[in-house]
Amino acid sequence: MPRTLLRAASAIVLTLAALNIPAAHAQDAAPVEVTVNTRAALAAVPETGIGTNHAIWDTHLGSDQTADLLKEAGVKLLRYPGGSYSDIYHWADHTAPGGYVAPNTDFDTYMAGVRRTGAKAMVTANYGTGTAEEAAAWVRYANVTKGYGVKYWEIGNENYGNGHYGAAWEADDHPDKSPAEYARHVVAYADAMKAVDPTIKIGAVLTTPANWPDAIVAEGDAGSWNQVVLSAAGSKIDFVVLHWYPGALDRTGHVPDMVQLAREQIARYAGPGAERIGIAMTEFNTGSSSNGTNTQPGALAAADAYATLLANGVFTVDWWNVRNGIGAVTEVEGHTDYGDFGLLSSAACTSDGSVCEPALNTPFAPYYALQMVSRFARPGDQFVRAAADQPAVSAHAARRPNGELAVMLINTSRDTSYAAALDYEGYTPAAGAPTVLTHTNGATAITTETAGTPAGRLLPPLSLTTIVLRPAAPPSGPGAPGQPAATAVTDTTATITWPRATPGARPVAKYEIHRQHGAVTEQLGETGGTSFTAANLRPGTRYTVNVIARDSGGGLSWSSPPLTFTTKAPATSSCTAKLTVQSDWASGYVGSIEITNTGAPVNGWTLNFAWPRAWQSLGSGWSATWTQNGQDVKAVSEPGNGALGTGATTTIGFVGNYTGPNVLPSVFTFNGRVCGTG
Which residue positions does the secretion signal occupy (predicted)? Predict the structure, then answer.
């Protein structure tokens, strides 16, 4: 957290008239093709999706105006008592030794604001200078004495920042700063707190994949922070806590891998029943005052990140902060940016009084981003895939239970208007003008109009646009199939099963299985039952599939929730290649590959693999001649290790660099043959 206290399936060609675009804008750019595919479903929109942080140093935390503004923005979760202050805050006497506690910010005042906002509460219990008994007493006061029904409770805040990995900003009075000690206390806190109220949900702090100190193993530890915490406390927790300050406005593409890697860690280390553990992003901000924290570029990045995180199954994304205070003042895209990480102005001034923020509670641009996301994707809606063929335009879509479809388009270009031409797969919009919500650079409100056609829309520079479409016919198909599962996954096959769909007016005739390729899908097959074995899959490849029910009259259901699985390396092969990460420093790692020739003897060999992501690269290598071409990596034997008889083994090594989630390569070929993993 900031440390300042104030601190496409097919293209369509449309005429200008069909796009409702004035001729004056026709020369700005070629139409952007946007594909929206309701067959490619993502996560459902959670009730707690749009959140923000409240901090006890904010004098206006408990005001009615603050609560009303947050309600108008669609905020559904409020986190308290405020980042690192959580680890010095004592709720019973409302003190934070070493920090500033503003008047009218106590727990009861906070809860009054939560209720007025119509939100859920999330409370961070004091790990750094508190005890399990103190946390349990807080649960008792909140849920037994006062009947507040606070469901979500975190244990500490960013506790990996206690100096164990070299950087110390988080208070921690425990002599042992290790993840094992934190995990031991998480267990004790969870036991004590759930003894008071068994219905609460307990969250443990994790490091965010590819963000420091993720993957680092400190001296004396049995593994990274996440591995140790999940292994020791996984059975006691209900969700994990991530924080993300990307520092740049173009990192949303990291989100799917970031969330998937977190899920894989949970599944690997948290023990039986790990699938119940949710993921909460309890602090998020662009983290880039130079690119605009209060101005439109930051707002566009916020809307893109919120939609992407929620579509990937994170159950809450909580902006840092409601009010944070003035920072470095700059000019961004024609407007003053106050370097304030808040949603609302605190009316603060620079230390010399030369620049002051606007009037108290004036919304900054990211406020309107949260408001737009809350109007675009409402609790109970289902995100579906959408994509644009222009890098400056991001597309998101959500299907509503009443059959409506909302499409949010984000134009990040500072000077180009784009004509967006929309193509719909699996959905037929009604004719007539849709409802359109727009927020442009410097605007102080979201405008709403009924205009244009479902086929397209002009996107002004630096704008957020949501188009809400009605269906051509009311929904009449069966209910959606339940959550699919994958079993018997091999290198080329996987068996997919799912709960049966509820019939509508007509019986269910069959189920279709669709694989996602971005916003495009391919049908893997269909069946009359509730199990299907997909064949001809590629080894070491991540697949995301949905199941759709079709009734006897051709009516289609909503898509099932998505299922993601990864195929394995071949069970048998004439070679094995085993990758081991020997050390990792959160931006690079040392890897060793043990190669075993299980086939006929060879005299000279070549090992090939590909980096899964464009942000990965080869730093150096040894015991082979290493080269990289694009994302493809090749290691050629040296004179001393080229001859490998049947059963012979050699080990080579490399340094791999990364600037995003580090998805490890999993498919290796040895002289052109796909290897097993040993």
Answer: 1-26
Phi, psi angles (nearest 5°) of residue 488: 50, 45
184 burial (CB, 10 Å; 0-12 / 13-18 / 19+) is: middle
148-171 confidence digits (pLDDT tens): 999 999 999 999 999 999 999 999
- Asked whether the beta carbons of 158 and 243 are under 8 A apart, the reply is yes
3 pLDDT higher than 50: no
**What span, in angstroms and rounded, lies between the C-alpha atoms of 362 and 69?**
10
Smallest Cα–Cα separation from 329: which of 300, 362, 351?
Answer: 351
Cα gap 629→180, rounded to integer Å = 42
If phi > 0 it is left, if psi is from -120 to 50 it is alpha, else beta; for residue 426 that is left
CB 278 within 8 A of CB 239: yes
- At 560, list the tokens: 């099932």
Q: Between the CA of residue 18 and those of 25, 285, 352, 422, what are the distances in Å?
A: 14, 38, 54, 11
3-state helix, strand, coil in the chain (%, to 5): 20, 35, 50
Token readout for 202 is 């307990």
Strands (E), 552-615: 563-566, 575-584, 588-597, 602-603, 606-610
Phi, psi at residue 595, to the nearest 5°? Answer: -105, 130
Query: Per-residue pLDDT tens for 84-122?
Result: 999 999 999 999 999 999 999 999 999 999 999 999 999
Q: How far apart (Å, rounded) are the C-alpha atoms in residues 596 and 651?
A: 9
Distance CA 590, CA 658 (A): 12
Q: Where are the alpha helices (DSSP H) in 128-178?
A: 132-139
- pLDDT tens digits, 433-443: 999 999 999 99
Radius of gyration of the chain (CA): 26
pTM of the model: 0.94
Helix (H, G, I), strand (E, B) or coil at 365: helix
